[in-house]
Amino acid sequence: MSSMRGLVVFISDLRNARVRELEEKRINKELANIRSKFKEAKLDGYQRKKYVCKLLYIYILGWDVSFGHLEAVTLVSSSKYSEKQIGYLAVTLMLHENHELLHLVINSIKKDLDVNSELFNCLALHAIANVGSKEMAEVLSPDVHRLLISPTSKPFVKKKAALTLLRLYRKYPGIIQPSWVERIIAIMDDPDLGVTLSVSSLVLALVQDSPELWQASLVKAAGRLYRLVVKREYSEEYLYYNVPIPWLQVKLLRLLQYYPPSDDPTVQKLIGKSLQRILDTASEPQKNVQQNNAQNAILFEAINLSIHLSSAPSSQEYLAQCTALLGKFISSRETNVRYLGLETMTHLASTLEDLRPLQKHQATIIQSLRDRDISVRRRGLDLLYSMCDSSNAQVVVAELLRYLQSADYSIREEMVLKIAILTEKFATDATWYIDITLQLLSFAGDYVSDEVWERVVQIVTNNEELQEYAAMTVLQHLKSPACHESLVRVGGYILGEYGHLIANTPGSAPIDQFNAVHSKFAVCSPGTRAMLLSTYVKFINLFPEIKHVCMKVFNTYSKSIDAELQQRACEYLALVSMPTDDLMQTVLEEMPPFPERQSALLKRLHGKTGETEDKRIWVLGGKDASNEKEALKLNLSGVQKRTEANGNATSPGQELVMSGLDMNSPVNLAAPLFPNLASAAHLSPGWEEGYYSLLSRNEGVLYEDEQIQIGWRSEFHGPLGRVALYFGNKTTATYQSLTSTVENPDKSALSITSPHLPSTTLPAEGQTQQMLNVECLGVFREAPTIRISYLAGALQAVTLKLPVTLNKFIEPAQLGADDFFPRWKQIGGGEREAQKIFSPVSGERIDLARNRRLVEGLRWAVLDGVDQNPKNIVGAGVLHSKTGKIGVLMRLEPNMDQNLFRCTIRATNEAVPKTLKDVVLDAMKAY
């Protein structure tokens, strides 16, 4: 731009303008000149660029620019980088996402995404991310995805493509297609850590909304974290003050928290070693502030993950270490460390069954309420709320009430919510609950939300033991000179319902109750006055002796200019003026109990989490607070809840007095499910040959194509087996992001674990292996499957069926003729027998020697001299499983004339014969 002399002079003139009027005059003159130049329509690229730059500068200064947008769009389609750059800059600054000219830019952007120029690709990606209109997202998201996964894209293009997709997804979640999942996850193994970081940011956002869809990212994150932290696979350029790429470590640790603890021992081992290394390294403080900050960021996220995994036995050893570290952090001199320590300890409190280790630090946590930093005070409040239980509830609530009177105005409403919830949750004495809640309403003033006083009404209504004491206490508060409106509402409701319980107490006569309530009537809002009119009509029903006093109020407000007050007063006058009081007594009968439902206090408190931050996997308030559908229940000793004589019916009086108390639970929508590509429903072409041949063999080739060969070697003893899979690269190119996923359709009958994951890199003409440990737990029918994916330019993947079938757990058994046939007859037929007549699949003539080898390969002992027909093959074996042993017998009878077999299998377990019969038929397909 320094070469544009006219632009430099124009900027200099504006900077030298002494007053706004001179600046405006110079701008108007320039705008008139630019408009005339644009009308000539004979501008070259340089002139158009210069004038658009002037318009941009004017726009940035805050002046309105109503023309020139089309010229900027024209610059976008230029073939010169300098002109295109200015055009994209103008588009992103001057065109909003609903601008009418934006659709003209989309074709140019699409062309720039398609060309083989990294600079043009990046300009287009910047424009998409900054403008991000819905039309752009729908039309261009496939092209952005293509740039992300393309093997020819440079790393910095991939990084920008990943972040652009993230930007679009946050605005329009529907742009991410399920077919993209496997390919995007594979890029988490990219050799360039910058690409991995950008893709991890994208996957982290996607996992929060659809964890099932992105399940495969769990293993990727665990493996990548292990290679970073333990194996130190990174280049020097990614060291930040001797800490390897801390941003990526934090994202991977956070991603792992969105999934329950893995059942896979290999994944558990990877995560455990990574956590231990982080805790050992980061617990040593460094003198360098930046290095300390980076280590602390990783450490706190690792502690959060340890807390999340606390249900797994392997993670219990880390919790004691984490608790000790957090105790030091909350006493740190550094504000940021104290903040993070309090927040992480709150997470720990939300999962622990026993809060005593945290309560040792109660004095320090209470002191944090008086910290100089407001954010630290908020986190201290959260922690006190979460670590409160029946043992320290009264101390914590008293401290919070004391602090409430001097607390910042910005957190008083939240404090009121938490005090109200704790008082209700841990109340063991009726008087304590009433005293605290009424003090709260009195102290908090305008910071009491409607949910707080409505919840008090609900609790008092549903607990008979509270009602008399509540009526007496609230009357004393109403008699005081200063009484907040929320307390007036509670008092009006409780006295209207239960004032008769204290009517014979000195100082609590009906007229005293009326005077106490009516003394606050004039200073209340119209809504509260309407409620108090309902209280007065209740008084008439309970205390006929003060009817004339209440009638005066109704007569007065029957002429009120407020429509609500006027209508209520007129209706109540008509109701109490009837010849008989039968209807009045029916309408104004005592309120029925409220049905059990979610506490609105919890709902309001949990709704305070920011929508722009990462979703939190835990909620404030301890372990039981995560169950939002369960209402808080007052735990008063000896309190009998009133039976709901009228069911859940709502009386007209209830509608008049307590409108707005409905507290329905939110609806939780399940995340969409993604088809499991590792299942048998997605087997790759060509899987059959290797599978069928290995049913009767212990080693061989499971699958082979032009790019990869998958070898198989296995051994089985009793119910246990070990399998080695060999992945061989047949090309001269290195494969990246090698991933294997085993799908076990019957986990209750077959256990499959992998001691270690295969290397993610498969070198040219090289080989890597993966071990599988299998155990037969019972009778299973479906063989497991495996999906192997890798990057060879594009994503390549095969899904295969593993030849781990029930016959693999048979041990041969030698029997003579005297033993075989008695057992054969003893087992009998019916459900314990399976029989099938079939011909050889190949159509060849029956080969008795080959069939004998097949039966032996299927792990039966071939018994010679047992059957009278020497051509018949008789086999015996014992099927081993964790639950016991099952005898299995078979007869394979060939009909040489008709070229047919009859296979008969009997076993003492009814589920075994049919399963083994299917295995025999499959094995015959390999001959």
From TrEMBL:
It is a peripheral membrane protein. PANTHER family: ADAPTIN, ALPHA/GAMMA/EPSILON. A 1,2-diacyl-sn-glycero-3-phospho-(1D-myo-inositol-3,4,5-trisphosphate) binds at R5, G6, K37, Y46, K50, Y51, V52, C53, K54. Keywords: Coated pit, Endocytosis, Membrane, Protein transport, Transport. One of its GO terms (cellular component) is AP-2 adaptor complex. It comes from Saitoella complicata (strain BCRC 22490 / CBS 7301 / JCM 7358 / NBRC 10748 / NRRL Y-17804). The lineage of its organism: Eukaryota, Fungi, Dikarya, Ascomycota, Taphrinomycotina. Adaptins are components of the adaptor complexes which link clathrin to receptors in coated vesicles. Clathrin-associated protein complexes are believed to interact with the cytoplasmic tails of membrane proteins, leading to their selection and concentration. Belongs to the adaptor complexes large subunit family. InterPro entries: Adaptor_Complx_Large_Subunit, AP2_complex_asu, ARM-like, ARM-type_fold, Clathrin/coatomer_adapt-like_N, Clathrin_a-adaptin_app_sub_C, Clathrin_a/b/g-adaptin_app_Ig, Clathrin_app_Ig-like_sf. It is found in: Membrane, Coated pit. This is AP-2 complex subunit alpha. Coiled coil: none annotated. It comes from the Eukaryota. Residues 692-803 form the Clathrin adaptor alpha/beta/gamma-adaptin appendage Ig-like subdomain domain. Pfam families: Adaptin_N, Alpha_adaptin_C, Alpha_adaptinC2. One of its GO terms (biological process) is intracellular protein transport. GO terms for molecular function: clathrin adaptor activity.
